Protein 1
Amino acid sequence: MKSEDLSFHCGHRERLRQKFLDNKLTDYELLELLLSFVIPRRDVRPLARGLIAKFGGIYQVLTASFDDLKEYNGVGRNTAIFIKAIHQIMISGYKSCLNMGPVFRNEKVLANYCTLLLSGKTVEEFHILYLSSDMRLLKDELHSCGTVDWTAVYPREIVKHALDLNAKYVVLLHNHPTPNTSFSSDDIEITMTIKEKLNTFDIDLYDHYVVSSNIIYSARNLFLLK
């Protein structure tokens, strides 16, 4: 890199840092700033713009799978790991909030946690969130992984683990890789089956969430738990 190019390069990145401190960065500039820490000796503006154009936004870039990121021209293994590390930090931050207080006081935090956890997944995952009597998160358990439109659910295992953890409430959580798809009839049926089995042991089903793209659907809000 020529000396004058290097001077502009360093000056541009310093301007990005100052714009960040002034809270004036656009989304692509924010991604550019992040990428500059993992790709220090290259102009990453085209890469930042390209990633946002490819995935649809900075949120979608963060929640994209490791393999999808790595397939994009200009994104190497280290860069993909860096992006997914930022994603994991966000998930961990929300999860720690759910450990500290009752989930009903943090509905937005709970929804954000669920969305960050499952948005961008290419196959269905079914998670169980076990809650204490004061509705703090005890454990987020990956119950099963399936295909693009199906995953196995085992109600007896859910009840058993709830009893082992002395959980008082349970939240069901799974994703639909197909965008903008809410609860299927099978989803509703398994929800009611699990609810009935939990109630036998005085354990309440607090909610069932479906994450589809960046949308989260709540069985409670859709009056499906009655």
Note: Strands lie at 125-131, 137-145, 169-175, 204-212, 215-218.
Protein 2
Amino acid sequence: MRRARRAFSVLGAAAAMAAAANAQATPRSGFSAARLARIDSAIQRYVDSQQVAGVVALVLKDGAPVYQRAVGWADREAGRRMTPDAVFRIASQSKAITSTAVMMLAEEGRLGIDDAVSRYIPAFAKTRVAVQADSGRAIVPARRAITIRDLLTHTAGISYGVESLVAPLYEAAALGPKAGYGWYTADKNEPICTTIERLATLPFVAQPGERFVYGYNTDILGCVVERVSGKALDVFIRERITAPLKMKDTQFFLPAEQRARLTAVYASASDGRFVRAPDGPRGQGDYVDGPRMSFSGGAGLLSTAADYARFLETIRRGGALDGVRILSPRGAQLMHTNMAGALHGDGLGFGLGFETTDRFGANGFSTEGSYGWGGAYGTFYRVDPTEGLVMVLMQQLMPDATTLKVRFPTLVMQALVEPRRK
């Protein structure tokens, strides 16, 4: 374990993953090698049955890889096999990184978690809410200001604008149905703050603080980061998070010379098999070619399994990794401590960046205190601080009608036969 941990830290994420391509449990890890092999069998079944084109799966225990596989195709039509360093569109997994940027600025005293968003984006000074009325739709004033905390916990009442009550208004503003499934901005020829200021003129779907509503919240936070820091979001994330943590493959748009590393997007078809997704917002997207102007803090980043695991390991260790500290231990803890109460679900919560598991049994086999989320292209991650685990599953399937990302954490946890939690 010491040798593997040193490899992951010293060689860097991509090199360590290549070295650990056949990583398996050691007697000291608490994992059963025979039970970890069940993950191999399960993933291979999804690939062999053509439900999924290709997968990269990675599990760290105390920072060292105990399981890592690359299976299937990165691009079947081009004949490219999946590799551990394949680049994936991580969509909403971007949210945790942007939320970290917000927490960094809070720790510097440059913003407050309970500040009104309008302090940084004046267009949010007087927001409105759409409600159902006898005449159809009525638009009423918000009862209070939306705060940074509301955005971090997805309790601001802001959706992706695809609900029938508001969809026509959002579509007319080039958002909602005009933005793929609502969240896609990579094809926009304008800075993210321009898009967000236009969003502020539209009605939202719930009053601030009343319920959990998933939507443009973290894209708004990306604009806040730009306004507070004076830097474009891509620059801030590169200079303050990804470069210091040696996450060299995490960025908003891929350089043209790395095009061959980007995994193709597929879609679940009616017969259960995958088909290649089209070009454009509901498929391959503009992550290599295109304007390269809109830095979506909520859904725009690309990454690899190793890079994202490295970010999660930093949070798991209290905001620092390999001598680089990006957050204080308390700041990191706040990100995975439930701040949404019961609004997110029974036994689940949402912290200042991550979904939380607050009761054993509420989220499959997950330990109380675990946290994670996923992305629209079928990617998934979870951190179990009690067991020292980081789990990452990468695929590119949108829409994803499979059960792989739901079953993956169960497959990992069933293999842990000597847990620290009794």
Note: The chain is about 30% helix and 15% strand.
